[in-house]
């Protein structure tokens, strides 16, 4: 295995975070809200996809989810009890614009207006993500992200939300994890809209980048001067299984990371990525002016990290256990998953320890990733907008959820973030994924990531041990001695 130097993490007891460090938790609309047919909300591609037979484990859907839509007061009270400084949630595009564009659904906007006001009243800073995968179904009918026009529709939506909430929201994030939208949705087919076409996936990736850029411009036009705009990427920390796998590492880093980072933060697509994938696309969907729009300055980059990625150039038949590429990827869902062009690289099964997603636990990779992004893309503030773990939590006979493994996971990753800050990375905040157990996409309700246990039969909430532990971390602005 290629080894990388990890920044040294400091001794336990010295892990206080900088003053002003933001402590939060994150969620996403379709994963928690439920109420899919209420108050004028339109259909999203996840409503459609989750109702298709065989696409989501056990036939689960987000129809009810955690019923957060009706339980916002209870959920905000939980956040306040934990002492969260900030709450990152996503707005459901089809609640605001039921057919993706045109007339605004006032009731949808009112829901988020109340949510923002109630958070502020509880002294919790709201951070809004505009797109966490729930594209209005009507826009899918006109091609979805494969259609360039969808980027323009996104900018209209960004303007509506920015104008309504931008005076009270700290940061508006355009997209969450466009890698997932483009590649899990259009190449692997394991996320909505469930397509398997590499050329379409690459067009979708570009149109998502364009949507981000047009969205930034639309937001800047309506936000106050203090308004902050960001993008969240799920970046992969890629390593090779052997010294011979350097080209596989370069290739996968290109299509996992640099295909999003470079246009946004450098104003160009990486030449090697363009070359690697010419056999799939001629890239003619990139038009004059697109890269100028995409590289509009942002105020922060959100990074979501769960697990490292190990790759090889060897063909799968000679790598025991290797499958069609990416089955080990942190964001992948059950079944075969792949990147476009991964005939050059395959994911290699990694040793444990694992979370319940079978994702290897390796906190040092987070330090390395943050230091690398800080080095290669200097000048942009970083936030960990998602980090956390699913485990097979159970309610104990004493009525509590003793999730020591989640505490250990978060503690180790916070130490890794602290190490990155010590090494110079400009990391301003950390958001646990996630507040509540919820609808984990193609895994349905079978995977529990929450600080708060949800009984999906009764919808009762119950703080896990990790929630109380996180409350103490926030209060101390750092890890307790020995954590
Ligand atoms: O649940 C997801 C979230 O929606 C996006 N990032 C990864 C999480 C865990 O898979």
Highlighted features:
483 residues; alpha/beta; TIM Barrel; 8-stranded parallel β-barrel; 13 strands; 13% strand; globular; binds 5-hydroxymethyl-3,4-dihydroxypiperidine
Describe the structure.
It is a single chain. With 483 residues, this protein is of the alpha/beta class. It has a single domain (22-476), classed as Glycosidases (TIM Barrel, Alpha-Beta Barrel), CATH 3.20.20.80. 36% of the residues lie in helices and 13% in strands. The protein contains 15 helices and 13 strands. The protein has helices spanning 29-32, 45-50, 72-82, 93-96, 106-121, 137-140, 149-165, 178-186, 198-222, 246-266, 271-276, 290-294, 364-376, 404-422, 465-476, and strands spanning 22-26, 86-90, 125-131, 171-176, 228-234, 238-240, 300-304, 309-312, 346-347, 381-387, 427-433, 452-454, 461-463. Strands 1-2-3-4-5-7-10-11 form an eight-stranded parallel beta barrel, surrounded by six helices. The relative contact order is 0.15. Mean pLDDT is 92; it is low at 1-12 and 317-337. The structure holds 5-hydroxymethyl-3,4-dihydroxypiperidine. 5-hydroxymethyl-3,4-dihydroxypiperidine (IFM) binds next to loops.
């Amino acid at each position: 295995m290629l080894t990388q130097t990890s920044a040294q993490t400091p001794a336990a007891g010295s892990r206080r975070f900088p003053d002003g460090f933001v402590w939060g938790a994150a969620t996403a609309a379709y994963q928690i809200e439920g109420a899919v047919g209420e108050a004028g909300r339109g259909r999203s591609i996840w409503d459609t996809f989750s109702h298709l037979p065989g696409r989501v484990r056990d036939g689960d859907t987000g129809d009810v989810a955690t019923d957060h839509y009706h339980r916002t007061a209870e959920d905000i009270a939980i956040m306040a009890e934990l002492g969260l400084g900030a709450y990152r949630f996503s707005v459901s595009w089809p609640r605001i614009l039921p057919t993706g564009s045109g007339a605004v659904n006032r009731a949808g906007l009112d829901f988020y207006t109340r949510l923002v006001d109630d958070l502020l009243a509880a002294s919790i800073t709201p951070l809004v993500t505009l797109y966490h995968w729930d594209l209005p179904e009507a826009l899918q009918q006109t091609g979805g992200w494969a259609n360039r026009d969808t980027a323009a529709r996104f900018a209209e939506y960004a303007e509506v939300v920015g104008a309504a909430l931008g005076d009270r929201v700290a940061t508006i994030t355009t997209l969450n994890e466009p890698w997932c939208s483009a590649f899990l949705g259009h190449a692997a087919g394991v996320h909505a809209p469930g397509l398997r076409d590499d050329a379409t996936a690459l067009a979708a990736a570009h149109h998502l980048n364009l949507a981000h850029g047009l969205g930034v411009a639309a937001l800047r036009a309506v936000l106050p001067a203090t308004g902050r705009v960001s993008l969240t990427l799920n970046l992969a920390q890629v390593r090779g299984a052997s010294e011979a796998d350097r080209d596989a590492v370069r290739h996968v880093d290109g299509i996992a990371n640099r295909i999003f980072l470079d246009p946004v933060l450098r104003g160009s697509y990486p030449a090697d990525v363009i070359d690697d994938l010419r056999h799939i696309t001629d890239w003619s969907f990139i038009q004059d002016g697109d890269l100028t729009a995409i590289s509009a300055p942002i105020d922060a980059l959100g990074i979501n990290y769960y697990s490292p990625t190990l790759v090889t150039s060897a063909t799968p038949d000679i790598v025991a256990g290797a499958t069609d590429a990416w089955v080990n990827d942190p964001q992948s869902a059950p079944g075969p998953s792949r990147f476009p062009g991964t005939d050059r690289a395959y994911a290699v099964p990694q040793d444990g320890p694992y979370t319940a997603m079978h994702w290897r636990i390796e906190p040092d990779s987070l330090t390395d990733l943050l230091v690398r992004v800080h080095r290669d893309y200097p000048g942009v503030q970083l936030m960990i907008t998602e980090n956390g773990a699913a485990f097979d939590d159970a309610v104990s006979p004493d009525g509590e959820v003793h999730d020591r493994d989640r505490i250990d996971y978060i503690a180790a990753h916070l130490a890794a973030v602290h190490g990155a800050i010590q090494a110079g990375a400009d990391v301003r905040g950390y958001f646990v994924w996630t507040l509540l157990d919820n609808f984990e996409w193609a895994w349905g309700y079978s995977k529990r990531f929450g600080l708060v246990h949800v009984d999906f039969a009764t919808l009762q909430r119950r703080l896990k041990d990790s929630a109380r532990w996180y409350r103490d971390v926030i209060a101390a602005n750092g890890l307790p001695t020995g954590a």
